[in-house]
Write a structure and sequence with these properties.
This protein is an alpha/beta fold. It is built from 16 helices and twelve strands. Belongs to the spermidine/spermine synthase family.
């Protein structure tokens, strides 16, 4: 005897729930990566913990869903599962902060703290909702199965629909929800969407025989529901979303500052890395982009580029400020060590903590860029995690972290700048390198205004070489005139040279506006950079 067949409306509702659950499972994973980044960074360890455990939860859900479906093959049970899943997804934004803070602090003393801490956070936050989402497909197969001879086709159709939902759940949060509305809102949209279709299912399945619920038509084969057109349409959704968000594919052109000879290349977990010689200068190129991330010239300390300006940032403080007042420096985004080399030359062997996420870059920096200063302490770690777990105070905290062409979002938010300020001495300064074009300063201005929500005063200097600007936030209240007064008293030729270049050609200005463009919850920095790239291509700007 064949199992009871479902009313067509109920069947279509089951298909819809399978699709939404598939979208929710990947949507939760994509939003989870954004949620974890401000606490643990976005390193390979964090992604491994996140992806591995999500897959483990889904696997557990598949097994559990099959067992529950055989024991309780009723639609009400199915929709209760998805209702609870929706409810627990909706809880994530509200319980995440205490759990993530506890996880970060609890494992900060272990050498594998990033990996272990992120494991604990993912276990506590995402286990229940993702396991319940894994139950959906096998349970739906059991409810819709009418003939054993058609079980393979039915299972294939439902898993295809679930996967189509997962595709939408991958692209929709990344290209639209997270950049425009934030991580918390994205979780809530996922939860509410799943909850609505679950409640609708509970209402219909509770209606009983004779309504639009299940009908006991034993011995009769239920009508098919054609999914081919639905699947074809769904497969084109992510392509359309990507086109609307980016305006088409963009591939940065390979190149260096004026061409050069390739000396070395490596493929790391994070980057495709090239070391190029241009004349007497070594240049570090990442991911075939046009940006130069570090330079080294054995015949000169100064580069003319953005690295030089980190040295003179403290002189925005109230006079008299002297080089002897700079005691300790941190650089987030060490690269191949251009900034520590210059700071050591200008200030002597003061302690410098250099934070770099990619160990291969550090290896090449030591080999080709003379990154061997004895006062440089290299820390292989995500920059945000480093700040979260250190108690050290610094006179200069420099941020020069790019994964071409993007700035890691967690290193550009109001919360991040608050953490930076908490690690500054009373006269400490925060310095960030921001890219731009010759006419488009949107990234510079949004970063400066976000910083000004945290720092009393924020200043901008345009660099002499490359299209970059340096943004300086002071821990103490300062004024623009302080820079000229302090630098007029300098005698060190390196500092004097950069200060004079800044005053003459740097268009030094104070950012007066305070507006938070980037937060841990909503930081559309990638979207902004994409728009800048597209506008630069259209206008021919550099």
């Amino acid at each position: 005897m064949a199992p009871a067949a479902a009313h067509p409306l109920q069947k279509w509702l089951l298909v819809l729930v399978v699709f939404v659950a598939g979208a929710a499972s990947l949507g939760v994973e994509m939003a989870a990566s954004r949620l974890l980044a401000p606490y643990f960074g976005s390193s390979q360890f964090v992604w491994a913990a996140l992806i591995g455990l999500i897959l483990l939860y889904l696997t557990s859900g598949y097994y559990l869903g099959g067992r529950l479906a055989d024991r309780f093959p009723r639609p009400v049970v199915f929709y209760l599962i998805t209702t609870v899943a929706a409810f627990t997804i909706g809880l994530i934004p509200y319980i995440s902060r205490p759990i993530l803070l506890w996880s970060l602090k609890a494992f900060a003393t272990y050498s594998a703290s990033v990996f272990i801490g992120s494991l604990a956070a993912v276990i506590l936050l995402f286990a229940i909702p993702v396991i319940l989402l894994g139950c959906v497909s096998p349970f739906a197969i059991r409810l819709l199965l009418q003939q054993v001879g058609r079980s393979g086709r039915l299972a294939g159709q439902l898993y295809a629909i679930s996967t189509a939902g997962s595709i939408v759940g991958t692209f929709l949060p990344v290209l639209w929800l997270i950049p425009n509305y934030g991580t918390r809102f994205t979780f809530l949209v996922i939860a509410i969407t799943l909850l609505l279709v679950s409640i609708l299912g509970l209402v219909i399945s509770s209606a009983g025989p004779g309504s639009s619920g299940w009908h006991p038509r034993e011995g009769k084969q239920a009508r098919h529901f054609d999914k081919k057109s639905l699947l074809s349409l769904l497969l084109f959704i992510p392509l359309g979303l990507e086109f609307l968000a980016l305006g088409g594919p963009i591939k940065p052109a390979s190149g260096t500052d004026g061409g050069g000879v390739l000396i070395a290349e490596r493929e790391s977990d994070y980057n495709y890395i090239q070391v190029v010689r241009v004349g007497s200068e070594m240049q570090l190129i990442l991911n075939e982009g046009e940006a130069v991330h570090s330079v080294y010239d054995p015949t000169s300390i100064l580069t003319g580029g953005p690295w030089d300006y980190f040295m003179i940032a403290p002189y925005f403080n109230r006079p008299p400020f002297t080089p002897a007042m700079v005691h300790r420096v941190a650089i987030i985004g060490l690269g191949a060590g251009t900034i520590p080399r210059e700071i050591t030359a200008a200030y002597g062997p003061i302690p410098i903590d250099g934070v770099e996420i990619d160990p291969t870059i550090v290896e090449l920096g030591r080999r080709y860029f003379a990154m061997n200063e004895p006062n440089l302490h290299v820390i292989i770690q995500d920059g945000r995690y480093f700040l979260r777990t250190t108690t050290q105070k610094y006179d200069i905290i420099g941020i020069d972290a790019y994964q071409q062409p993007y700035v890691p979002f967690q290193l550009a938010t109001e919360e991040f700048f608050s953490e930076v300020r908490a690690h500054l001495t009373p006269t400490g300064v925060a310095v960030i390198n921001a890219g731009r074009t010759t006419h488009d300063f949107r990234l510079v201005e949004t970063l400066a205004q976000t910083m000004h929500a945290v720092f009393p005063n924020v200043y901008i200097i345009d660099t002499a070489r490359f299209t970059n600007s340096i943004i300086v936030g002071t821990n103490a209240a300062t004024s623009l005139s302080d820079f000229a007064r302090n630098t007029a008293m300098l005698t060190n030729p390196l500092l004097v040279s950069v200060a004079q270049e800044s005053l003459a050609f740097g268009n030094i200005r104070e950012e007066k506006s305070r507006h938070v463009f980037f937060t841990d919850d909503r930081s559309p920095i990638e979207q902004l950079i994409d728009q800048m790239i597209l506008d630069a291509i259209r206008s021919g700007d550099e």
